[in-house]
What does this fold into?
Amino acid sequence: METDYKNISVLVVDDSATQAEQLRFLLSNQGFAVTVATNGIEALDIINKHTISLVLSDIVMPMMDGYQLCAAIRANHETSNLPVVLLTSLSRPEDILNALECGADYFISKPYNEQFLLSRMRNIIDSITLRSGEGVEQGAEIFFHGKKFHIRADMQRVLDLLISTYETVIIKNGELNAMQNTLSERLLDLELTLARVKKLEGIIPICMHCKKIRDDKSSWQQLEQYISDHSEAFFSHGICPECLALHYGQLVKSDK
It folds into this structure.
């Protein structure tokens, strides 16, 4: 049985009006009821006044960031089980620990792939009914790089977050591999171009009388033949004004 997403209210929290509108447009077209907040404080006010099914929040925001917003949602008994998804670039290991510490449920990579985001949103909504919300929280203190993180999260939330982190890493690795393949192709093109350019580099022996060039096999070739063999250039023949006057001066005068 398919979920009716019109009954699912998603709160998008992002201080970037452009990015918030992109998310609102994307989710609304899929049937979600979308509300937008520009910071964590505004988001909490909306959560307290309206029924919200899921929070999709950026992390870096003024006044109250995504971690602080998530911690505040968890601290309120009435909203403690509200699913919170954080949009992140996952640039530091501390991001995962901060998310565990504040009680976030999922990570979604930013910049995000729209189809993956929609797929992840559907999975999250479909799994909400499977969570009883009565799990006993477990506490643990973790020290990392001289900082202490106090994590309060049930096992299901920890698994959800780590699985979504793993999916994010896979996507980033795929993007990195694609970028490396593109760079390899461009590097090959550059090497081929440089190889063509280098064909005519260095000292080239040329006869001072007939202007023939000695090739790598010690054979003497006409100038145009040598250049044609060692580059992509080709020749069309004509006559310059000086040679015209020198060799065909009489003919030119007689035509006049």
